[in-house]
Amino acid sequence: DETERSIAGQKLNQIAAFASVNACRRRQILAYFGERLEAANCGACDVCAGETEQIDATTDARILMSAVARTGQRFGAMHVVEVVTGANTQKIRRFRHDRLKTYGAGAERDKQYWRRIVDDLLGQECMVRTEGEYPVLKLTPRGKDVLYGREEFHVLRQPSKRRRRARPADAVIEYDHALFEELRAVRRQLAADRNVPPFVVFSDRTLHEMAAHFPTTPDKMRNITGVGDKKLQQYAGDFLPVVDAYVRD
Ligand SMILES: [Zn+2]
């Protein structure tokens, strides 16, 4: 019947989203079968092992979740995406959502891009989709942490068919690959110990910079992109000795 077909359709969409969502693969597959993996880091899949390339999408996540919040957490993904992209629909006019601050805030990206952000926010448990005939998006505590600037949000770099010129922020930097591998091993261990995904410890960008600038003191490490006071305090003791030993060799 209609309900079963719509559930089947949702499940298919979920499967399609698996590969692109930046969350533990095992956790996603279990969630698909209605089960829950308590650990946030299974330690074995490519995402948990830190083998994927991460892109900071915190700003876009905030734009989308801000639209969810400002529309009262009472609308589905399609409508929220139309608000963010500044679409001119009857529904938007009826609810006066074209007067919201986030209306059209993401107009420079297409709807497909924002649907992916929605999938990632769901997969990373920043939002939930309610059950029933008219599913709506709601924010979770983690979603609010990202929205209010307490947490970052990363997505996986998607394989692109056409090579685009890298923007300066994404520009590839020259770095020492052997040191990078050592730093990555430290990150993998810390992430497993703390039961968090590796990018929560440090992004690839941060490790690349460390493997390029060889920081051996807290001051030098503080100058690396992505190293704030809190992370310096948390991780300097784990990473600095590795760099120091590497430089001495
Ligand atoms: Zn995993």
UniProtKB/TrEMBL annotation:
Reactions performed catalytically: Couples ATP hydrolysis with the unwinding of duplex DNA by translocating in the 3'-5' direction
UniProt cofactor(s): Mg(2+)
Sorted UniProt keywords: ATP-binding, DNA damage, DNA repair, DNA-binding, Helicase, Hydrolase, Isomerase, Nucleotide-binding
PROSITE patterns attached to this UniProt entry: HRDC
Domain HRDC intervals: 173-249
EC number: 5.6.2.4
GO MF, any single term: 3'-5' DNA helicase activity
Enzyme kind, highest EC tier: isomerase
Transmembrane segments: none
GO BP: DNA repair; DNA replication
InterPro entries: HRDC-like_sf, HRDC_dom, HRDC_dom_sf, RecQ_Zn-bd, RQC_domain, WH-like_DNA-bd_sf, WH_DNA-bd_sf
Full protein name: DNA 3'-5' helicase
Lineage of source species: unclassified sequences, metagenomes, ecological metagenomes
